[in-house]
């Protein structure tokens, strides 16, 4: 894959950090259990519709655990906790540096 100017695109990181043990019991309670995974993983760098995944996440009883997991691992692809990778990065940055949050959250 390449950008329009010919530069190669970076592939998303897909491996978890092997040096940490993460709690994942919450997964069995997720609203996405049994839902086709392609709904949560639109094509790499694609501007595909993510609304269906976000609607499922809005109803999920463990959306916070899912979001926290995606940030801690970190997972740089797919919809996790109702957010895209870019949104998760911004959310985590704002949470880590609240004095820089211009939205007052």
Structure, explained:
The model is unreliable at 11-19 (pLDDT under 50). The termini are far apart. It contains 3 helices and no strands. The protein has helices at 51-58, 63-72, 85-96. The chain has a domain at 25-41 and 48-100. By secondary structure, the chain is mainly α. The longest helix is centred in the C-terminal third of the chain and has 12 residues, at 85-96.
Question: Mean pLDDT, rounded to whole units?
Answer: 78
Any low-confidence stretches, pLDDT <50, length ≥5?
11-19
Strand content: under 5%
Helix count?
3
The structural class is mainly alpha
Percent range for helical residues?
25-40%
Largest sheet properties: none
Note the gap between the termini: 37 Å
Query: Could you give the order of the helices and strands?
Result: HHH
Shape assignment:
globular
Spatial extent as radius of gyration: 15 Å
| Topology, number of strands | 0
Note the main attributes of this structure.
105 residues; mainly alpha; 3 helices; globular
At a glance:
The chain is mostly helical. Helix content is about 30%, strand content about 0%.
Reconstruct the topology from this structure:
Blueprint: H1 51-58, H2 63-72, H3 85-96
